From TrEMBL:
Gene3D superfamilies according to UniProt: 1.20.5.4130, Helical domain of apoptotic protease-activating factors, P-loop containing nucleotide triphosphate hydrolases, Ribonuclease Inhibitor, Winged helix-like DNA-binding domain superfamily/Winged helix DNA-binding domain
Domain Disease resistance R13L4/SHOC-2-like LRR: 569-930
InterPro entries for this protein: Apaf_helical (IPR042197), Disease_R_plants (IPR044974), LRR_dom_sf (IPR032675), LRR_R13L4/SHOC2-like (IPR055414), NB-ARC (IPR002182), P-loop_NTPase (IPR027417), RX-like_CC (IPR038005), Rx_N (IPR041118)
Gene Ontology MF terms in the entry: ADP binding
Organism field: Brachypodium distachyon
UniProt similarity note: Belongs to the disease resistance NB-LRR family.
Protein name in UniProt: AAA+ ATPase domain-containing protein
A GO BP entry: plant-type hypersensitive response
Amino acid sequence: MDGSGIIASAATGAMGSLLAKLASLLESNYHQMQSGTRREVAFLRDELSSMNALLERLDNADSSGAPPLDPQTREWRGQVREMSYDIEECVDDYTDHLRCRQRRDFPPGGSGGVLGFVLGYVQTVREMVSRRGIAEQIQELKARVVEAGHRRKRYKIDDAAAGSSGSSGVVPVDRRLPALYADLGGLVGVNGPRDELVRLVDDGEERRMKVVSVVGAGGLGKTTVANQVYRNVGDRFDCRCFVSLSQNPDIGMVFRTMLSQLKKDECEVSGSGDKEQLINELRDFLQDKRYIVVIDDIWTSQAWKIIKCALPENICGSRIIVTTRIGTVAKSCSSPDYDLVYELKTLSHGDSKMLFFRRIFGSEDKCPHNLKEVSTEIVSKCGGLPLAIITMASLLTTKSVGTEEWMKVRDSIGSGLEKNSDVEEMNMILSLSYNDLPSHLRTCLLYMSMFPEDHEINRNFLVRRWIAEGFIKVSGCRNLEEEGECYFNELINRSLVQPVDFQYDGRVYACRVHDMILDLIISKAVEDNFVTVVSDRRHILCPQSKVRRLSFDNPSVENLTAHSMSVAHVRSLNIFKYSEQMPPLSNFRALRVLDLDGNENLESCYLEDIGKLFQLRYLRIRASNITLPRQLGELQLLVILDLLNCSHISELPASIVELPHLKWLIVNRVTLPNGIGNMQALEFLSLTVVDYTTPVTVLKELGSLKKLRTLGLDWRISSSHKDKIEYADNFVSSLGKLGSSNLQYLTLISPWSLDFLLESWSPPPHHLQELAIKGWSVSKIPVWMASLANLTYLDIEVQVRQETIHLLGAFPALQFLKLYSNAADPKERCLVVSKNGFRCLKKFNFVHWVNLLFLEGAVPVLETLEFQIIVHEVQTASRFGPPDLGIRHLSALKNLVVNIYCECARVEGVEALEAAIQVAASMLPNNPTLTLRRFREPEMLTDDAG
């Protein structure tokens, strides 16, 4: 969990952490370890280290585009991978045995007398039996390792790995050929993207060369669209070529293909030559020509750098179109001076239906009535992916027109079980993106097969799961969370998961796995015995070997066969809906991750044995009526405890302070016990309550948590409380210490004034990035806050005045601002945002019934704005027509929400103001989405009103 080594991966099993644990056992001063056992451990470490290197080579060969591994090699790899899990479990049992003995040798209180002697004797006998059992396990595992080594030599696995890393010499048929020769009459949804790309390519610029990148997921139709553009505008250029790349392209062959197409009317085309010679020949030929070149399906920036050398940047108005699945590659290819990255979108629902019905029946009108509903459901599951729609249509042409068979196909989407040549062909295309991933990202993607179809997955939640599983390895100066977010972003960047929600700063907040990608990763996960899913909608995926990760996706009672499934080796358990037929937790002795999600009928008794899960790193409970057992403190390896959705829990058991490795404590308005200062590993603590039952010592200890980065606190000490000063002084002191350490995210909620905190906070918390103060208005923004160079997010209730706007406008890094105030100064009925104010602000929500005016040059990068207008006041201030609010100056705006306060205003005045806002918004370059909301509309004045 320290990020020094991967605990588990789909490619190497538990080898990463196992080798680290074996090395740790040998280096540690475990005087209890017998010399024979030490020799066995040393042998296991050396032999497994060699096998791990071979597993990594096989994994690289398996994803390099080389021929697939032979069945014998794949079988050996699977056996070694499973063996690594078993050996790690044995090592963990042995380590637990040593740890428990150490705790017994040095008990907190100690025990003596006759009772102590008897208990000590009994414990000695138990230890002898336990030690003998562990020694026998190690001997058995050693025998398995020796046999695996013999098989490695007999089957010549090393030779197989070396052979697979090379090329077989057989060139497969390019699966993009159908896209290149698609009949225009059979295409759907192409016209819009084609016309937009034609506009980018043929924009009237006659001299400068431009590179346009088209980016999108596999199967989205990038090749088809690029080819249509190529056909549409190709005749306007002196010469042209269209080349498709593989994941590991032969650049020499690419250059020769380009030459043969570009020089098609010339008899002389070189058939040989090194890359340098070919580059020179291409440059010489193209130097004075207006050319168009399409580079289809480029995978790396490095490949582009080499190809770009052969394409001279002349002044003839040449064009290059690049298609790719990877966002960073698209940006590196496109012309830097232009915004020339075109993201290809999925088909609309209407176009999806048109393509589907045209492929099967010719048109929707010809679809049998009994198949229309199930057809629409199948189309929806395809998620607008043309490849998926065409594949499903081709599959269904082999089925009868009976509803039952079509419903089976519908239900199979998202299960990874449908075996059909068309489906396999589609998976081969989608697998290109999967195979291009480095090993650690493939593991993280496969893990997402545990989640149900169409499940919205929160980024932070997913990253914490990856951390608990040990999939993340830190690099550079990033911590585990930051590294995990990089993994998450890379999967989105490679178009393998779909972003569904964004934060104020553009970071993706949540994602979803496309059903077709889910199909693919489920099949891969089952193949590698990485995940087992039990569901009422998917078939039960029970591999023959031991279950390692288990997900109960809302299984029906009759379909729940978990009792016949061995769960003793399950490392990760996800229960999306609890059932009384579930095996007891005591059966899951190897469990590292436990997620009880959406289990409103979960009973507290199910958690009674949780203290026996000695290996548990992650515990998340989502249930409304659960109480925590006191055995929680026995989970000595627990790193993440998520009780955010447990509304019934108002206090934590006292034993929680005995968790030395706990980093994330995610709760919702609970009180903390004494001893919180013992939890020195804590980095995340939210949302806790401080009220009259909270000991003052808790506030004192809070300041000692030097690693704490996130804190959420609900302050309920009223100004009339007799010990208010003592509470406040300790709170201010602790926040001062945290602010000087690592505090980056702070949320404070209180029905009472928090001026005492902001006025006294010293030294300023210079690491602070996000601050939210809710529940009560502070009187003013302290001047020292403007010095927070890292503050990007501020949500605060404050009495807003003009000086407040000026002060906030000078914040150097502020990107999100929500200002709320219910106090109005009658002298300041219009607040002005001046030139150069809020230089970095992207989202501004101003909740205050006072008018706002933007001067030219204000908020230059603002994308989202919500504010209020009091109509009768702006009409009073402006005698000649609707007022100019300065909206026309907000050139970066994409979303605009205006709340219009109608009381005491005339109907025609409100309508005129709305029309003026609409005109101003329509003139902005991004054509922002506009929402107008009326408040107190019944109180408007009519023409005959007094």
